[in-house]
Design a protein that fits this description.
This protein is mainly α. The protein is built from 12 helices and no strands. InterPro entries: Haem_Oase-like_multi-hlx, PqqC, PqqC-like, Thiaminase-2/PQQC.
């Protein structure tokens, strides 16, 4: 937890506190990710992960659009809208969402089923929508701060890609293409966000809001993996959520 008030942290100490949050709370530490990267997940568990993660990916540009509308500086808007372009693409067949759909394609899902989100876990939906609402209703400073999990994403991406390619014969570099561009994009985005919060958090109270926003975002990511573990590792799939065999192209054709 962050302190209420106190002495303004130096830029160096403030950044160190942010990075400490990632070291302690980022979801690379979650047991589901250890299971995924080490090859212990079943095909069904990988399917469930990709299906549920789609909702997060699809809602990111919507979240970013809400942030964009609140930016008064043209330079900030120009920089932030790159995030939307990264996910939506500049033309049909381009962008991060399209690349994620190629992953779910390769795992046997029909696109209409994935895009409908009808099979995602309640925990996934609640966590993602809480994040979008956070960025809509909290201050611009807090909304930008919540994106700082991107400081830590290059490490988890390298672990994920290397581990999945080593352990699962049903994935390839092509089907994992979403991750090929993310490290560069995440570095650009986190550089902007880090500079923004260090510049605009002018009091210790504002710095504390930034720290709390990053903690919240880490919890959003962690909660999604908790939901996956409970449903597909422990086997407590909630009513209405996807079960193996649903949402396939074969099922749709039938």
């Amino acid at each position: 937890m962050t302190e209420a008030g106190g002495v303004l942290l130096s830029g160096e100490d403030f950044e160190a506190r942010l990075r400490q949050i990632g070291a302690e709370r980022y979801h690379n530490l979650h047991r589901f990710h250890h299971r995924l990267h080490s090859g212990q997940c079943s095909f069904t568990e990988v399917q469930a992960w990709a299906l549920n993660r789609y909702y997060y990916q699809a809602m990111i540009p919507i979240k970013d659009a809400t942030v964009l509308t609140r930016m008064s500086e043209v330079e900030d808007r120009r920089e932030w809208r790159k995030r939307i372009e990264d996910h939506d693409g500049l033309q049909p067949g381009d962008g991060g969402i399209e690349r994620w759909l190629k992953l779910t394609d390769s795992l046997g899902f029909s696109r209409p089923y994935v895009i409908s989100t009808q099979g995602i876990l309640p925990g996934t939906r609640f966590a993602v929508e809480a994040y979008v609402e956070f960025c809509r209703s909290r201050s611009l400073l807090e909304a930008i701060a919540s994106s700082l999990t991107e400081l830590f994403s290059p490490t988890i991406i390298s672990e994920r890609v290397a581990g999945m390619l080593a352990h699962y014969d049903f994935v390839s570099r092509e089907t994992l293409a979403y991750f090929s561009q993310r490290p560069v994009q995440a570095k650009r985005d986190s550089d902007f966000a880090l500079n923004y919060v260090k510049t605009h958090a002018k009091t210790r109270a504002e710095q504390n809001l930034v720290l709390a926003a990053l903690e919240f975002k880490c919890s959003v990511l962690w909660t999604q993996l908790d939901a996956l573990w409970g449903a597909y590792v422990d086997g407590a799939v909630p009513p209405g959520a996807w079960v193996a065999g649903q949402g396939s192209d074969k099922e749709q054709a039938a």
